[in-house]
Amino acid sequence: MVLETEPLPFGQWLPEALNTWLQVVGLLALAALLLAFFIAAVRNGPVRALEITLSGLGAALGDLLRISPRRVIALARLSIKEAIHRRVLVAFGVFILVLLFAGWFLDTASDEPARLYLSFVLTTTSYLALLLGLFVSVFSLPSDIQNRTIYTVVTKPVRPSELVLGRMLGFGAVGTAMLAVTGVVSYFFVVRGLDHTHTIVASRMTPISAEEDGGFRGQTELASNHRHQVFVDANGVGRTDTEQGHYHGVRQEGDQFVVTPPIGMLVARVPIYGKLAFRDRTGSPIAKGVNVGEEWTYRSYIEGGTLATAVWGFDNLSADQLAGGLPIEMTIRVFRTHKGDIEKGILGSLVLRNPQTGKASAARNFIAKEFTTDVHHIPARLSDADGNPLDLYRDLVADGRLQVELQCLQPGQYFGMAQPDVYIRASDASFTQNFIKGYLGMWLQMMLVTAAGVMFSTFLNGAVAMLATLAGVIAGFFIPFLQQISTGTFLGGGPVEALYRIVSRMNVTVPLEPGPGTTFINMCDQAFRFALGKVLAIVPDFAGLSNVDYVAYGFDIPADLLWTHVVKGIAYLVPIFIAGFLFFRTREVAR
Question: Is 244 in contact with 252 (CB distance < 8 Å)?
Fold first, then answer.
């Protein structure tokens, strides 16, 4: 799983985020007050404008402080009935229809079928939830105003803040119910779609001689477009090899061999990450590995057949964690400068080293597996390069610290890796709970879209409100890209420079010639980047709220990340509600 930025601990993230939030909200509130004062001053003069602004501010605060939960709940129930009347259940029908035909297109012969199934159902659910929140929220209030049915509500003792909050909560409740039902259906769809077993024909199992400790070896019959190699010991207990991200337990019962359901397919790994450092081809420490020419600089590469090494340093390891050995998993990339032997793959080595004494284990050679998780279980008892016995914890761990060194052994070939690509696998968390946590991110996205749709619909008609909300959602999914433009780190410059390069057919890596034209282009781009940076400060990071990759790639969603997402969602929902209330309060229909 690509993890370009490691999540900060919640306690470390919260103070800085809270400070930023207070600054942004404070500036927006100040800008709104100044704008209201300016409009009132144009119409009534500065003295009267100050009185109008202060009285309006006091009335708005009083409205917010006197919100009645009973009336909000009643309005939310009315919004739920309205949403059902608008046939929002069609979205659930579409989802079920998609699942009915999904089995035709999901390839169970892929290297990671669990990832394929989970990515499909979670992504589909996410998009349907966003569309549901969008269409339910943006057309309701403008339609009521146009049809004048809103007067049956505002003529009763209902505050504008209660009406806006009731709409948001009501439509959000509908989306929540839809997400809950689709989540249950998705869970059983994935479990049932991936569940399979194999049969073993006893006559095709080859006995192992007593000199080799006895037992049987062979292979399973074909099932779900794959088969496994099987080993059963002399006690009649064994397992298959790992294929498509899972394996099966095997036991002998008389003359038959019984295969268990798949193990390790639907998991929630709890990884222990280390700090990555590099050594160059001479063995000297360097900041980064080799750049092989890829535009995406997430991974650095080490040169094969040299002393170039990637070193991961792990801290706070305990004897209990290593009592049964060291489970290491990796997802490295290979860059070939020549074809080599494609069938054999690229050879690499893995070494464990004591960072204090320098004592190291014998090299463990392996064939690099691209685009899939390569699992290595290092036993608690191992040996050094001279064959001397070593104890994993006592000899190789110093004050809880351990180094894992990775090399590419074939000249002319390169291994690419990033810090999260090699990790120690701790005990797994519950997949079911992780699946539910994945849906929490979708729920936050849906609530933000619903709240934004209601907010825009308080002063825009339905079609324009839909476009405004959709624009915010699209911008929210491209926050990392837009941040590169706003900070000036995007290759090719800002929009004016990019336009100039397109017209003049200039390569993006060629610097602009100094001169008045270049100065003007830079000034325009700086102004654009400044404005874009301010806009990005208030646009919700929809992509950042998604936990789909964690669930699909089989990693447990950290509690710190979950709390960060929840606080982010609340931090956006509160200003959106207040803005919607203020916009609606200025309309004549709300008075």
Answer: no
Query: pLDDT grade, residue 225 (50/70/90)?
Result: confident
Mean pLDDT confidence for 332-347: 84
Q: How far apart (Å, rounded) are the C-alpha atoms in residues 208 and 216?
A: 5
Of 247, 127, 187, residue with least CA distance to 435: 187
β-strand 413-417 against 300-303: which pairing, if any? Answer: antiparallel
First-residue to last-residue Cα distance in the chain? 53
What lies within 8 Å, CB to CB, of 361 at 6+ separation is 351, 352, 353, 378, 382, 383, 384, 390, 396
The yes-or-no verdict on residue 360 having pLDDT over 90 is yes
Cβ contact 566:444 at 8 Å = yes
Confidence tier at 111 by pLDDT (50, 70, 90): confident
Q: Cα–Cα distance between 182 and 339 in angstroms, integer?
A: 47
For residue 591, pLDDT over 60 is answered with no
Q: What is the pTM of this model?
A: 0.88
What is the average pLDDT value for the chain, to the nearest integer? 88
Name the nearest CA neighbour of 302 among 210, 417, 380, 398.
417
Given its phi and psi angles, is residue 423 left (phi above 0), alpha (psi -120 to 50 degrees) or beta?
beta
Tell me if 118 sits within 8 A of 190, measured CB to CB: yes
| % of the chain at pLDDT higher than 70 | 97
Token pair 């995406």 is found at 296
Give 40 or 348, the one with higher predicted confidence: 348
> From the centroid of its chain, how far is CA 378?
30
Tokens standing for residue 312: 């991961």
| Close Cβ partners of 29 (under 8 Å, ≥ 6 residues apart) | none
pLDDT value for 391: 92
The token pair that represents 495 in the structure block: 């929009």
Map residue 431 onto helix, strand or coil.
helix
CB atoms within 10 A of CB 232: 23
pLDDT at 446 over 80: yes
* Identity of the amino acid at 509: T
Which residues on neighbouring strands pair with residue 315, listed in sequence order? none
DSSP letter assigned to residue 380: S
Q: Positive or negative CA dihedral for 380, 383, 384, 385?
A: negative
